[in-house]
Design a protein that fits this description.
alpha+beta; Thrombin, subunit H; 6 helices; globular
Length: about 280
Amino acid sequence: MANETLYTALVDLKRYLVYTDEPSVDDAQLMRAVNRAQARLAREMYATNEGAFAYNYNFDIDSSASYVLPPRIRKIQYVEYQGASGEGWYTVKPANIRDRDGYSSETDLLTTGTIRIFYTRYLPDLAYGTVAGLSATTLTLPATAAYGTISRIDDYYNGAWVEIVSGTGSWAERRITDYVGSTRVATVAAWDTNPDTSSIFNIKCELPVDFIYSGLISGAASWLTRDKEARQDFDEDIDQIKRFSSIEGQTVSSLKPYEVDYSPNKHWYVRGNRIYLFAS
């Protein structure tokens, strides 16, 4: 976060509210405003680049009729299939919406192999607090964060970045590849130096670095106050972020830089929060 944490942003935001002589605002209201600002700026990024804030995940196919998708998927960009024998990946075509109800027979289902889904994500709400537990490849988030709310939804943080901003393991960051809401355990790549329960974590804001700090403050301030200067600053941030055509390492093209090779006889479609996969 360019050495700026959510805590630093909130401290400066509180100072700004004192400066503008606004009524006291509690931390929950501050966080709602900060997350609202993040969502607005991210929405402008999506408008500029449909592949922004991308992630991909794999799952093995069995005889299930459908599979539950992770939460916070904005748009599925590609679905790829690899057969059980481990041959190359092939891109699966989306079913024509007019024809998808014809894929209903159990004999049409894909029953073996692996599916890989490339998708763009809605960014998770930000949070900051003390690590509750860990292992070499996990981090347990606290039941109650110092700032923000810890989600209890499975896979909510998949694709998000967590960074250690204070204490043991400071300034290490890892991408969350799996998250169990009931236990608040996030799976990450192995730490170089394991954090401990005195370490402070930050769910990292993934906006371009120029907007991570100033954009969150000006956006939150513009909603919490009637200050015209804050509104003007945020409007300028919105105008500038529209000019960003990519985010390094976070676009579909960076995750899938190779040519699309379509499989002629496999299809997918989504209904609700489930994906259906067919062999014909």
